[in-house]
Amino acid sequence: MAVGCRAVHRGIRGGTRVSSDERRNVVLVTYDSLRADHCGCYGYGRNTTPTLDEMADSGLLFENAIASGVPTIASMTSVMTGRHSLASPEIGFNEQQREQVTSRPTIAEVLSESGYSTGALSPNPPASSYFGFDSGFDWFEDFLAEDRGVLERAWRRIFESSIEGGGLSTYLRLFRNVVTQSEVLRPWEDFYDEILAFRERAEEPYFLWVLLLEPHHPWMPPSDTQQWSSRSDKYAAFRQYWEMFDSGWTPDFSAAEHQRLIDLYDDSIRYGDQFLARLRDDLADDDPVFVVHADHGEEFGEHGRYGHQPYLYEDLTHVPLVVWNADERGRVEQPVELRQLAPTIAELGGAEHPFDVDGLLTDSEEARPWVVSKVFAEGNRRAAVRTRSGKYIEESDRRELYDLSADPDEQRDRSDENPQSSAAFGDALRSHVHDEQERRAVEAAREAVTEGEVEL
Q1: Where are the domains of the chain?
Q2: Which listed residue, 88, 375, 431, 436, has the most CB atoms within 10 A of its CB?
Q3: Which helix (H) or strand (E) holds 56?
Q4: The CATH homologous superfamily of the domain defined by 19-363
Q5: Rounded to two decimals, what is the model's pTM?
Q6: What is the CATH code of the structural domain delimited by 387-451?
Q7: Three-class SS state of 203
Q8: pLDDT per residue over 248-298, tens digit each?
């Protein structure tokens, strides 16, 4: 693995189980919609992430961490199972999407079976118990009713109208929810005590996962934490949110309107960073390893859209990733993908695991110099291959190629200029697809034999 500056601790290696008295408490913190290039440790000019920056300075920062899918439901399926999601990430009642989690081993199940206490808090419905994300957790809080009928009604109430075209009722509901902080739109301080309560009753070692809605839109940072936006900005932005929804996420904002959203977004990031500072301090006596990342990023018009629809440009796929207090320090330049978090956490816990991808703390001579992101949406597969400085995107008959060192915003497609490079990237993608198909075929055959479906 090529790295910038890295001091390697040799205590952990992929597939190797360490003794039980060395098993670490592990805390996984997921920020929803946090772009890497809005974090100080990735070069951002504003002081949005002071705590994350401190962790990066004394821990291990991955410069080219790439979400395996977009949006949350696709990305977090990969994080928890170590496998790409093969279902459409479009929000809705999707049994196939649920099976992507429930039919596969998850990191929580692996650690629970090895003796860990496991707890999670996820106030985002796409990463809720409805889709199986509670698998393996002793405690899982998603603020959704346990009764499935109630849950489905709540789901439709919050999301369905906006998916099917919305209307004024959706806009007014959003306004009400933000003002009252009801339903899923709750700041992290509202549920922080529940996290500490889990810690008080959990036996060590423990695995704790917290998904924060900061900085997911709508951006409503508490007034006493705002540095770049004002209280009036929060309410002026409501019309902009409506325009985003009503335009299919392609609004025509003025420069001032655009900057208002950036300012609110940055203040929401800063507020979310305060959670990290408090949790790190409150759990200091447990000496946990922190793994901090975002599920995906956020678009602000770079390619005509706002939000985080299932596309694969850098503003959506390039995310922050820091591992802190794991006896490793430096900056890793090699591209990595979020689905590598599952084996990484298992190895930190000294647990044998079934994940067939290398962990982040594993030195592998066979590590590929590229990673893959993919989504399935609107009847098509969108896939991207990412190296340190290059990016290839493929959808149906469309191909795009970008030189990220010269064009980090992906504004100049070079696929026609460099057909050989495009072909090489395409070959890499087909190699990945072939490997995935082969593995699924082996798994299907194994299941058929196990279930007695094969005649002898």
Answers
A1: 19-363, 387-451
A2: 375
A3: helix 50-58
A4: Alkaline Phosphatase, subunit A (3.40.720.10)
A5: 0.87
A6: 3.30.1120
A7: coil
A8: 999 999 999 999 999 999 999 999 999 999 999 999 999 999 999 999 999
